[in-house]
Design goal:
This protein has 13 helices and two strands, in the order ααααββααααααααα. The longest helix has 23 residues. The protein has 242 residues and is an all-alpha fold. The chain has a two-stranded parallel sheet with strand order 1-2. The chain folds into two domains: 171 residues, no CATH class; 70 residues.
Length: 242
């Protein structure tokens, strides 16, 4: 499946195009089969912006929408050491400069529009930026803030829940990462298949092969329609061969 369409600032003002992009983004996220550790959380943040931006535009003041659009522009900026012909969006000399810009704009939005949906989303994206910079504690704090300020039924909580698990793993706390993925499966059941697969992976890395094998053995029964079933079966086969 192709990735969601990348839109420019003109497209941001057209609700129909945003609705279409939101559907594409959600479908791609639900069907992707591989987990990329360093890029995973960042991808969640960018997709989260696309999914909720149209609703935020309709519900918030023009200035808040503009701030969110600026954050989106920073998150979608390109990296290049030389000018890029025809590019109208931001261009950064390196990844660190890009993520620092994202954090700065997220902080501006949080300071100016607290207690809004736009601010909630800024916290999630800020967590992704800190994660990309390997600033684990700051990332965890941002993800925790998102979870504390959003209701249990919020459709984007899975991003913050996964982020916390990734942070724990990055810090070498494999037990904490496994617990994080278990929480993700419980609180974001629509992504329980992905959470179970990742939990089995970190348990295996922690040397808890029997626990990992039990999760994978039950995977096809628990997630009958999951697109991740072949990957779970492959991982189970590898464990069984040991």
């Amino acid at each position: 499946m192709s990735k969601p369409t990348v839109m420019d600032r003109k497209d941001l003002k057209q609700p129909d195009k945003f609705q279409e992009a939101a559907v594409q983004a959600a479908s791609w996220m639900a069907s992707r089969k591989k987990h990329v550790v360093l890029a995973g959380a960042v991808a969640v943040g960018v997709l989260a912006i696309v999914v909720v931006f149209a609703a935020v535009q309709a519900q918030r003041a023009e200035t808040a929408g503009s701030a969110l659009g600026s954050l989106l522009g920073a998150a979608g900026g390109d990296i290049s050491s030389v000018p890029l012909p025809g590019m109208t969006g931001p261009v950064y000399p390196n990844e660190e400069a890009k993520q620092r810009a994202v954090i700065s704009k997220a902080d501006e939005l949080l300071a100016g529009y607290g207690q809004t949906r736009a601010a909630e989303l800024a916290a999630l994206v800020k967590g992704d930026a800190h994660y990309q910079l390997r600033e684990w504690d700051q990332a965890g704090q941002a993800y925790d803030r998102y979870l504390k300020e959003t209701p249990k039924e919020d459709p984007l909580r899975f991003g913050a829940l996964e982020g916390l698990a990734l942070v724990a793993e990055a810090k070498g706390d494999l037990g904490g990462a496994a617990q994080g993925y278990e929480r993700m499966a419980s609180e974001a059941p629509r992504f329980a298949d992905r959470a179970d697969l990742e939990r089995a992976r970190v348990l295996e890395a922690a040397g808890k092969t029997a626990e990992a094998r039990a999760i994978l053995a039950a995977f096809s029964d628990r997630h009958k329609e999951s697109l991740l079933a072949p990957q779970a079966a492959q991982q189970l086969g590898r464990l069984g061969a040991r």
